[in-house]
Amino acid sequence: MKKLLLLGDIVGASGRRCAVRYIRENPHDFVVVNGENSAGGIGITPRVADQLLDAGVDVITSGNHVWAHREIYPYLDSCGGRLLRPENCPPGNPGTGFVTRRSGGVSVMVLNLQGRVFMPGSDCPFRAADRVLSGGCADIVIVDFHAEATSEKIALGRYLDGRATVVAGTHTHVQTADASILPGGTAYITDLGMCGSSSGVIGVNFSEVRERFLTGRPVRLSVSEGDDRVCGLSVTLGPDMKPSSVETVNARI
Question: What is the spatial distance between Cα 30 and Cα 184, in angstroms, rounded to a whole number?
Answer without folding.
Answer: 22
